[in-house]
Amino acid sequence: SKKLILILGDQLDIASPALKNIDIAVDAILMVESANEAQYVWSHKAKIALFVSAMRHFAKQLEQQGLSLIYIKQSTKTIAENLKVELVKGKFTHLICVEPGEWRLKQAIEAVASEVGIELEMQEDTHFYCSREEFSAWVANKKELRLEYFYRLMRKKHGILVDGEGNPEGGQWNFDKDNRKPFPKKGPGLINPPELFDPDDITRGVLAEVEKRYPDHPGSLANFQWPVTRKQALQALQCFVEHRLATFGIHEDAMWTGTPFGWHSLLSSSLNLKLLNPREVISAVLGAWKKYDLDIATVEGFIRQILGWREFVRGMYYLDMPQMAKDNFYQHQNKLPAWYWSGDTKMHCMKATIGQTLEYGYAHHIQRLMVTGNFALLAEILPKEVCDWYLAIYIDAIEWVELPNTAGMALFASGGRFTSKPYIASGAYIKRMSNYCDSCHYKPDVRFGETACPMTNLYWNFLIKHRKQFEASPRTRLMTANLARISEPDQKAIQIHAKALLANLDSV
Ligand code: FAD
Ligand code: SF4
């Protein structure tokens, strides 16, 4: 037999099961930089550069190990088209790959294999703790799927933060309520900097190429300092657990102008490209917990993101695709305001979050969920438009993780399938968690009129509009209780203001 082993741009793991039984004498590895992949969504320049640079570094490593590699640079054809050509040209008998993270690619690879009539061995992705079968078994016939129960199961199964009897360390499964503090009023003070990496020769070449090929794409390359190799990703992990983890939890949700990274780990892109394995991240965090006697709330809060959320959304993605991409619970149809691509808005929270996103391809979870996501939901934007933006603009965006977070969590597009209520908030929340409102054109506590904060106005408008539905469920009943304190004429004024605002989103 003669095998072709396909390695995708987000499968840069030298320990990949696809490489296990490679016969160096006859088999070959195929890697494709597809310009088509960069263009089917309008990607941030830094996201394109990260994928291409990490792929080229990985290719170099494969070649150094003496493996036979077909590496196709900046092809204008799709991955599937290239795959078909190479399979036929090389007279391969078997196609080997790890199951792709993206549903669309999985379909495309299966289609090529059946067209060419070749045996396809699509291996399970062992990068994750929870296999797709295990997730489906957990789902069984549950109607409501909630992270908390899945997460507890993962903790017990893998013996993470549980004592000998299976009880949670610290006496609680979840310390979320301890992890929601804003920065002090005078600012975050000194934050230990993350480990950043100056571009090497390969990356510099890629940056120049991306600038030349994709001049119109959004985002900047000026601050490109992301890990592009496994060695760098391990360094970034080490720096995080040594210098930044201790303060991660308590300020996890805090936001501050000019503080793009807070205490966050910046490990998502390395994890998603598979330069890092989640097991080594969790093991490093547990090691630091013991070594420095860290607060359990911080350690649990961080581990929940990786062992809980990351695994949970992946399970949900494969369970609900392709329907998840079409879900639109509220039937929202508005267009995404043009300033999502430029940050050119008078809303300071949005300007700051979008601004740093264009600069670095990064915003932390609360900025994504409660600033840009919250506004998109309140402004009744079509989920597809919002999802395309998130997929394009974040350095770590791959559909299996982007779509459930955006459509499912931020936009409640799948209804209550995997979150109990829509994550909506008014300007009061942004004011509490950040300093954005201090220098804003709008006033966070004004609901209508010239200085009304668009978040606040649209928040109340949303509650008025969906009042009946919110009151029907015990989970959301409390959210509308405060409406009783707003007079009828004021509620009318809120709705009139919102109508004008929604008709004019581009000039907010
Ligand atoms: P930290 O805050 O340091 O968290 C540690 C790790 O936990 C992250 O690196 C990530 O791997 C994992 N994690 C944390 N939250 C989540 C989550 N909700 N889902 C899955 N993994 C999580 N994450 C992506 O990796 N890619 C995306 O495309 C993406 N799109 C998002 C879109 C929206 C609307 C929202 C609300 C969240 C999205 N997230 C996405 C989740 C989360 O915001 C990012 O993983 C995180 O901000 C990355 O920064 P960090 O590495 O500093 O994370
Ligand atoms: Fe954002 Fe409103 Fe605060 Fe301005 S006032 S920063 S729009 S929440």
From TrEMBL:
The keyword ATP-binding does not apply. InterPro entries: Crypto/Photolyase_FAD-like_sf (IPR036134), PhrB-like (IPR007357), Rossmann-like_a/b/a_fold (IPR014729), UV-DNA_repair_photolyase (IPR052551). GO terms for molecular function: lyase activity. Coiled coil: none annotated. Keywords: Lyase. It comes from the Bacteria. This is Deoxyribodipyrimidine photolyase-related protein. It comes from Polynucleobacter brandtiae.
